[in-house]
Fold:
Amino acid sequence: MALEYILYGNMCSGKTTVGQILKNELDYTVVSAKDVIGNNIKNAGESLQNLRKKGYLLPDTIVTEWIFNEVNILLKENRPIVLDGYPRTEYQARDVLKSFGFRGKIMYLDFDFRVIEKRFINRIICDNCGMPFSKLFQDFHKICFNCQGSEFSPRITDKPDYFQVKTSQFTDTSLKVISVFKNNGLEFSGLKDHTSYQELRKDILTLV
Structure:
């Protein structure tokens, strides 16, 4: 098995939800950049922790080391892998291609700023498993699709300044990842904005 998919998109585009569907429905192993960074940042210096709290990208070499350590362990276990939220820069994208010979597919969740902002305002997190959800989903009735939990809270970092930092970085830096992958002939598949979880699930299973 190998690294097979990269989930790419702005914050609140649904990468975590897509990754969870791939994991639950098709038994993919998802390496979430958010989770990997969260696990490693606890032992990092205060300056790195402050960068993350404010929404800024961490240095390429540090994030790449953390992500690659996780991926390499899973590759030894012969697991099909999905990367969620990495790469975020041209450097990281080139490193994925070079280090893993990545020839899989990019699943691009490409929504305009107005959709992302609306999703951000309506995002809540499952208190039990940490899955993010949009209150905009028509079939969301305060039951977690992932663990069936029923308690939700706003995400601590979801404040206007954090949103502006994340979206600005995506536009100024992360969008350049697309050119790196396209120049290397990688295949892209896109997802539209969905009004229901079941609609999203159906589209993903059709694409894969």
Remarks:
- Residues 97 and 184 are 9 Å apart (CA to CA).
